[in-house]
Design brief:
With 441 residues, this protein is an alpha/beta fold. The chain has 15 helices and 15 strands. It has 2 domains: 273 residues, Acetylglutamate kinase-like (Carbamate kinase, 3-Layer(aba) Sandwich), CATH 3.40.1160.10; 151 residues, VC0802-like. Helix content is 38%, strand content 19%. It is globular, with a radius of gyration of 25 Å. 43% of the residues are buried. It binds aspartic acid (ASP). The site of aspartic acid has 12 residues, from loops.
């Protein structure tokens, strides 16, 4: 029998109707043996996630304020789910204990983690699976850092005795028993850790979208879905802001070579996106896998005659930005030029000082600063071997009258990054998408 680890996000478990969809999905494949739930998420757009309600309770308690009203909303949501599913389950004792602990000053991590904990108990009951408290197997060290190897060992040891189990996402425990959570959205990480521990054939990540799209649907109407993407391509697109799953969550399964399948709980027959290792052949639409953009960069272009002959120029330039606590995104260079692409959030109030130091220490002929820049990454494994990709890309941008200020093609050749004005970003993404997908060049 194969093993599938299936993680379900908050919107997949937000109410009775969603729980029923999840049950049908899990029971439709006997290989779905380990299930990782998030806490109930939003049922409609201005609803509040249980996790957020729990953080609010903690904050009220911290300020010695009453939080009964919020806690009652939480209790009511779980009650509705249990009753709607017709389960013979009483969470009253658990809820009372949690409330008392919050009143007595329990940590924010403990408080927030109870959303997943309670949802896990409900889901296990609904499925007839064993419930395993994540605190027993997801381990952090005494400083709160995730203990990857200790956890892997604990997962292997514990799960070998359980044919089928529900393990709540998002939290684990420190050696003294204190509950510790991952960062927000961290149930993705729990799922990946469990998938690695049980050496799953596949890690399914069930959410409310049918995987990754070739472009942001807020920019391009009905973009095509990406059927298969490599970890590296995903990393490039995720860096640009295309987010469907928690970025760190990829590492445990990537290391183990386990494919991740992003699926839609509300449309389970949609193919979704499979994230695979580099070795697998991947075909992309029109030679690219996706295009994504991110605003808010500043490009500093430094020019100096005979720069390429000047020993240590690059090192001195980088040590200036390092000593100012700034990290850079890209550094395209020419014979007599080096440009630094830096996120505005990094530069915050430091630009003048950095420019002064560059002028004093490096004596360049000129330093130009272009602010309000956006970066567009056109990503695709197929690009490396396909002639004409760059021509198509720049023709598309040229036709839209978009001025390209910077070009950087990573040596891996899986992406071409262009720097343009912030205000051109949406037009540029659309132009590139249509050029490749519709062949409109
Ligand atoms: N419930 C947690 C959050 O809202 C973790 C998760 O959903 O993955 O961030």
């Amino acid at each position: 029998m194969g093993v599938i680890v299936a993680k379900f996000g908050g919107t997949s478990l937000s109410c009775v109707e969603q729980f029923c969809k999840v049950r049908d999905i899990i029971l439709s494949d006997a290989n779905r043996r380990y299930v990782i739930p998030s806490a109930p998420g939003k049922r409609y757009s201005n609803d509040t996630k249980i996790t957020d309600l729990l953080y609010m309770c903690h904050e009220r308690a911290r300020q010695s304020l009453a939080f009964d009203d919020i806690f009652n909303v939480i209790a009511q949501r779980y009650k509705e789910i249990i009753e709607g599913l017709d389960l013979n389950l009483d969470l009253e004792p658990e809820l009372n204990e949690i409330k008392t602990k919050i009143q007595e000053g329990a940590s924010a991590d403990y408080t927030a983690s109870r959303g997943e904990y309670l949802n896990g108990i409900i889901l296990a009951e609904l499925l007839g699976y064993d419930f395993i408290d994540a605190a027993d197997i997801i381990l952090f060290d005494s400083k709160g850092a995730f203990d990857s190897e200790g956890t892997n060992e604990a997962v292997i040891q514990r799960l070998q005795h359980h044919e089928r189990a529900v393990i709540p996402g998002f939290y684990g425990s420190m050696p003294d028993g204190q509950i510790k959570t991952f960062s927000r959205g961290g149930s993705d990480i729990t799922g990946a850790i469990v998938a690695r521990g049980v050496n799953a054939d596949i890690y399914e990540n069930w959410t409310d979208v049918s995987g990754f799209m070739m472009a942001d649907p807020k920019i391009v109407d009905n973009p095509k879905p990406i059927r298969k993407i490599t970890y590296r391509e995903l990393r490039e697109l995720a860096y640009m802001g295309a987010s469907v799953l928690h970025a760190d969550s990829i590492f445990p399964v990537k290391k183990a070579g386990i494919p991740v399948h992003i699926k839609n709980t509300n449309a389970p027959s949609d193919p979704g996106t499979i994230i695979v290792n580099e070795a697998e052949p991947v075909c992309c639409t029109g030679g690219i896998t996706g295009v994504a953009g991110r605003k808010g960069f500043t490009v500093t272009a430094i020019e100096k005659t005979f720069l390429h002959d000047e020993l240590g120029f690059g090192r001195r330039l980088l040590s200036i930005i390092e000593s100012n606590g700034i990290s850079f995104e890209h550094m395209p260079s020419g014979i007599d030029t080096i440009s630094l692409v830096i996120a505005d959030s990094q530069l915050d109030g430091k630009l003048e000082k950095v420019l002064k130091e560059i002028k004093e220490q490096l004596k360049p002929d000129s330093v130009e600063v272009y602010s309000n820049m956006a970066l567009i990454a056109t990503v695709g494994r197929g690009m490396a071997r396909t002639p004409g990709i760059a021509a198509k890309l720049f023709t598309a941008l040229g036709r839209e009258g978009i001025n390209v200020r910077m070009i950087d093609q990573g040596s891996s050749e899986i992406n071409i990054i262009v720097g343009i004005e912030n205000e051109d970003m949406e037009d540029a993404v659309r132009a590139i998408y249509h050029a490749f997908v519709d062949g409109d060049s």
